[in-house]
Amino acid sequence: MYRGREGQWAFYLHRISGLGILVFLMLHVANIASAMWGPEVSNALMKFYHQPVFQIGLLLLIAGVLYHGFNGLRIILMDFTAWGVRYQRQLWYGVWVLFVIFYLPFLLKIGGGILGGGHGD
Amino acid sequence: MAIKSKRYEEARLEASTNLELYWWVFMRISGVVLVFLLIGHMWMNAILIDLNQIDYNYVAKRLSQTTWKVYDWLILALALLHGGNGLRYVLDDWVRHPVRRFWTKVVVYSLIAFLFFLGSLSLFNHDFGVK
Ligand code: HEM
Ligand code: HEM
């Protein structure tokens, strides 16, 4: 299965990020679905989650989703193509290139928001 | 047991049951779909708008549009199944005691079922009244 130096790292990061996303998803659905109980309930929760601590958490979550997603694609390519395993090192670098390209906009936008203030009303 | 193989042919040989092989395939299909859905979702709600603007009105408006109801429900269903089955792999790996493993799974699956129910209600059984 997972071989080599990158392999072990890749495996644990994949597992931790997967579990992290699942925990987020549960809080997230509860948060969004609370809108069924009207603006008071919903806005109170939203205001709570707009605090800077949670925005830093969100930046971590987004990193987790992007890493888990692109590394997942790498795993899938290795599973279903004849050449995937041969190029696993190159694919591993590819994961990080895609990660940086997609993460930068989020980092700038949300990071800028945290530093610039204006959160939590 | 969860399948550890790196290739489809090997996975077929390793699978203890057909069901286990179907899960293995499902993890990959749902994964490919989720990458696109999730990047799109995060882009719309964090890059195209300032996420500090997300409040009741914003959510009510989005959840009144059929496109986003269906889109969000796909994320909800696929992510809960994919994440729930992934968690099962992890629990089989980490929780060795059979009784403890059983009860952990009962709690976790109940929580997932509840959230699926709650999320589905908010998408298809509630009128947010936005025209
Ligand atoms: C973004 C798109 C995603 C892709 C491409 C993807 C891909 C994968 C793949 C290929 C596996 C390995 C399955 C196996 O070992 O048979 C996996 C495992 C897992 N995924 Fe995902 N996934 C994605 C999203 C998610 C989401 C949204 C969650 C949480 C709700 C999640 C949670 C997990 C967990 C907990 C595991 C098990 C990890 C382990 O066994 O160590 N994944 N994913
Ligand atoms: C940047 C991070 C994220 C932001 C700002 C965000 C924001 C939102 C917002 C505003 C909604 C309301 C409806 C809509 O606009 O479509 C929503 C719904 C939803 N989101 Fe996210 N989201 C994020 C990440 C995620 C991730 C990573 C997942 C999956 C693992 C996810 C799963 C869902 C689901 C399932 C719903 C529907 C909830 C329901 O059934 O009531 N979101 N999100």
TrEMBL record, chain A:
<dbReference type="GO" id="GO:0016020">
    <property type="term" value="C:membrane"/>
</dbReference>
<dbReference type="Pfam" id="PF01127">
    <property type="entry name" value="Sdh_cyt"/>
</dbReference>
<keyword id="KW-1133">Transmembrane helix</keyword>
<dbReference type="InterPro" id="IPR000701">
    <property type="entry name" value="SuccDH_FuR_B_TM-su"/>
</dbReference>
<dbReference type="GO" id="GO:0006099">
    <property type="term" value="P:tricarboxylic acid cycle"/>
</dbReference>
<dbReference type="InterPro" id="IPR014314">
    <property type="entry name" value="Succ_DH_cytb556"/>
</dbReference>
<feature type="transmembrane region" description="Helical">
    <location>
        <begin position="53"/>
        <end position="70"/>
    </location>
</feature>
<keyword id="KW-0349">Heme</keyword>
<keyword id="KW-0408">Iron</keyword>
<keyword id="KW-0812">Transmembrane</keyword>
<protein>
    <submittedName>
        <fullName>Succinate dehydrogenase, cytochrome b556 subunit</fullName>
    </submittedName>
</protein>
<keyword id="KW-0472">Membrane</keyword>
<comment type="similarity">
    <text>Belongs to the cytochrome b560 family.</text>
</comment>
<dbReference type="InterPro" id="IPR034804">
    <property type="entry name" value="SQR/QFR_C/D"/>
</dbReference>
<feature type="transmembrane region" description="Helical">
    <location>
        <begin position="12"/>
        <end position="33"/>
    </location>
</feature>
<feature type="transmembrane region" description="Helical">
    <location>
        <begin position="91"/>
        <end position="115"/>
    </location>
</feature>
<dbReference type="InterPro" id="IPR039023">
    <property type="entry name" value="SdhC_prok"/>
</dbReference>
<dbReference type="GO" id="GO:0046872">
    <property type="term" value="F:metal ion binding"/>
</dbReference>
<keyword id="KW-0479">Metal-binding</keyword>
<dbReference type="GO" id="GO:0009055">
    <property type="term" value="F:electron transfer activity"/>
</dbReference>
From TrEMBL, chain B:
<dbReference type="Pfam" id="PF01127">
    <property type="entry name" value="Sdh_cyt"/>
</dbReference>
<dbReference type="GO" id="GO:0016020">
    <property type="term" value="C:membrane"/>
</dbReference>
<dbReference type="InterPro" id="IPR000701">
    <property type="entry name" value="SuccDH_FuR_B_TM-su"/>
</dbReference>
<feature type="transmembrane region" description="Helical">
    <location>
        <begin position="70"/>
        <end position="90"/>
    </location>
</feature>
<protein>
    <submittedName>
        <fullName>Succinate dehydrogenase</fullName>
    </submittedName>
</protein>
<keyword id="KW-0472">Membrane</keyword>
<feature type="transmembrane region" description="Helical">
    <location>
        <begin position="21"/>
        <end position="43"/>
    </location>
</feature>
<feature type="transmembrane region" description="Helical">
    <location>
        <begin position="102"/>
        <end position="124"/>
    </location>
</feature>
<keyword id="KW-1133">Transmembrane helix</keyword>
<keyword id="KW-0408">Iron</keyword>
<dbReference type="InterPro" id="IPR034804">
    <property type="entry name" value="SQR/QFR_C/D"/>
</dbReference>
<keyword id="KW-0349">Heme</keyword>
<keyword id="KW-0812">Transmembrane</keyword>
<keyword id="KW-0479">Metal-binding</keyword>
<dbReference type="GO" id="GO:0046872">
    <property type="term" value="F:metal ion binding"/>
</dbReference>
